[in-house]
Amino acid sequence: xxxxxxxxxxxxxxxxxxxxxxxxxxxxxxxxxxxxxxxxxxxxxxxxxxxxxxxxxxxxxxxxxxxxxxxxxxxxxxxxxxxxxxxxxxxxxxxxxxxxxxxxxxxxxxxxxxxxxxxxxxxxxxxxxxxxxxxxxxxxxxxxxxxxxxxxxxxxxxxxxxxxxxxxxxxxxxxxxxxxxxxxxxxxxxxxxxxxxxxxxxxxxxxxxxxxxxxxxxxxxxxxxxxxxxxxxxxxxxxxxxxxxxxxxxxxxxxxxxxxxxxxxxxxxxxxxxxxxxxxxxxxxxxxxxxxxxxxxxxxxxxxxxxxxxxxxxxxx
Length: 317
Fold this sequence. Notes:
Layout: H1 2-32, H2 37-42, H3 48-58, H4 64-76, H5 90-125, H6 130-143, H7 147-161, H8 181-210, H9 213-220, H10 225-263, H11 268-277, H12 281-309
């Protein structure tokens, strides 16, 4: 128990350090952008008075370290800043855009775990046979297709040609659960790559575990094959799979941006794309911090799960 507490304390400290690094990196990248943001926001024919007002609103005349301290202080109090375009708090953008994004990511994860683990276990049970070769070949082929290409293909076939699903979420508002047909194609695109990688990882872990000495010893003691697979081999494949799942959620944050842009879903990805197009830096910075914090929290949780199933494997994502 003492060792677990010590490990947990070190991991939480690492998570706090990663959070500070995210804040510093986001601010530094925003500062490194070429050109004057005030001039860019003022339009094609900028008015000096408007430029001065924007510079004053953005505190561009103050030293960078002073602006960083003010911004970080606001973050500690839950203040992500104010949009330069609309004047709305950035937190309102987050609260408006997060339901569709969480719905997409949640549905993807809900389907990803049983599909990925199930396909991996099925392939491992039939190692070297036709079922294993089919699953491995299809997984490798689907994984090689970029999300935007797969999304375009699915829209062309199932939305435009067959008319089974709507091509975009335009006209359906933010309550996508009331229109489940709008979620089918986006979730399929988000599932395509992570389910393939998770299945291959579980397959490899299961094969290694089933070939280990303790599995052979269990069989010699008369333990059934089902118990060896699911009570002994599968838990040993869960630890690396849990960390991969956290990295998959990291990828989902990027994939959601692509998918929301492709299917015009009003989530955080669409908000971020619009903010980048409008050079609305407070919104961009605020969303970048939110995505970074989600990544840190998920990786910390994945390390806890991995440590629970494999306490000797002290790995940090």
